[in-house]
Amino acid sequence: MEQDTITIEELRRQFAEVFGDGGDARVYFAPGRVNLIGEHTDYNGGHVFPCALTIGTYAVARKRDDRKLRMYSVNFPQNGVIESSLDGLSYRAEDGWTNYVKGVLWAAAEQGYAADRGLDIMYCGTIPNSSGLSSSASIEVLTGEILRDMFGFDYDGITNALIGQRAENAFIGVNCGIMDQFAIAMGKKDHAIFLDTATLAYEYAPIAMDGVRIVIMNTNHKRGLGESKYNERRAECEEALAELQAAAAKATDAVAAQAAAIPSLGSLTEAEFEAMAGAIASPVRYRRARHAVYENRRTIRAVEALKNGDLAEFGQLMNASHVSLRDDYEVTGRELDTLVEAAWKVPGVIGARMTGAGFGGCAVCLVKEENVEQLIREVGETYGQTIGYPATFYVVEIGDGPGRLD
């Protein structure tokens, strides 16, 4: 189902076809997100700069009179209605995407927000699956919004984000940071969110880019975070941080002593990190940590550049981000590198980089409006010839966070 054909009436009609008429069925939406810069920094205590999109996930939900959960996806009709229960919520691989829904119900109950009745829920997503635009976090935040509204829970957007992250970490088993859920739960139209993931302090930064468009370039190379190297990268950074902390605790020089109590890689400046980097025994862990530190500082500088109206600097920092993710963090891969490196050659491109966890998924590009069609044509041709199957392109808008539509 294409985004521009989705209406509340059509969603209600499909819901009635699956679950029957009657009852208080309500319609909701939560966006996807794209991160403009600040990748793999959120679980390292650094800064990120994401924004919510106008593509996302819709749902129609209705309370039941029992404790049964019945879930259906318009995107996976072949799976039919998948049933579960509020009693004994547990992860089951055969339940597929519904584990994200169950995980939120479980995490919300853990925080004192337990649903006392089951639900019929139909989901309909306009985010390409496994694209790196956070379809899973969109489902999580959307489910949290459904629970908040239907059961009268009094939590705010930040709590909703934390519930979603808890579901992802403890129920799904992916050690993601807070960025995806936060960007979706707290999205604001025409603004990106400058978020300090160490403290959850944030500010909205207006994205005023007259004559410049955001284009998402999808590799169509599928990847699942739980099956990828995501958790491995996080562990490598944690080991590097432990080595730095151990060395700093013994240090006597001023720079190292200042960093002795560092809680995260994101709290280090480049100078502090380089002064202590010899403590990291593995060259691989050094590169992982270097990316986390330098990417955080790039993100801070990028937001300043945007505030100053310096889009050229912002774009250069995006490009440098991709190089670091390619060379130091090694999470790009052939497909993403092909897309981004082809985009860099197109006139009018201000900056391009992979976005999301990597290992497939999408890249984000800032390009002058008059060059959008040329970008899609030339990058598409290069990608198809190099990779052997097509990329997909989306010219996107920045939208609001989750809410009820009717």
Q: What does this molecule look like?
A:
This protein has helices spanning 8-19, 98-110, 135-151, 157-172, 179-185, 230-250, 254-258, 270-276, 283-307, 311-327, 333-344, 372-387; strands at 26-35, 47-48, 50-63, 68-73, 82-85, 119-125, 191-196, 201-206, 212-218, 349-355, 362-368, 392-396, 403-404. Helices cover 41% and strands 20% of the residues. A 6-stranded mixed beta sheet has the order 5-4-6-3-1-13, with helices on both faces. Strands 10-11-9-12 form a 4-stranded antiparallel beta sheet. Strands 2-7-8 form a 3-stranded antiparallel beta sheet, covered by helices on one side. Helix 3 (135-151) packs across helix 4 (157-172), helix 3 crosses helix 5 (179-185) and helix 9 runs antiparallel to helix 10 (311-327). The protein has a domain at 3-32 and 51-195 and 399-404: Ribosomal Protein S5, domain 2, CATH 3.30.230. Strand 4 and strand 5 form a beta hairpin. The chain has 406 residues and is an alpha+beta fold. It contains 12 helices and 13 strands.
Which helices and strands occur, and which strands form pairs?
Layout: H1 8-19, E1 26-35, E2 47-48, E3 50-63, E4 68-73, E5 82-85, H2 98-110, E6 119-125, H3 135-151, H4 157-172, H5 179-185, E7 191-196, E8 201-206, E9 212-218, H6 230-250, H7 254-258, H8 270-276, H9 283-307, H10 311-327, H11 333-344, E10 349-355, E11 362-368, H12 372-387, E12 392-396, E13 403-404
Parallel strand pairs: 4-6
Antiparallel strand pairs: 1-3, 1-13, 2-7, 3-6, 4-5, 7-8, 9-11, 9-12, 10-11
Helix pairs in contact: 2-3, 2-4, 3-4, 3-5, 4-5, 6-9, 9-10, 11-12
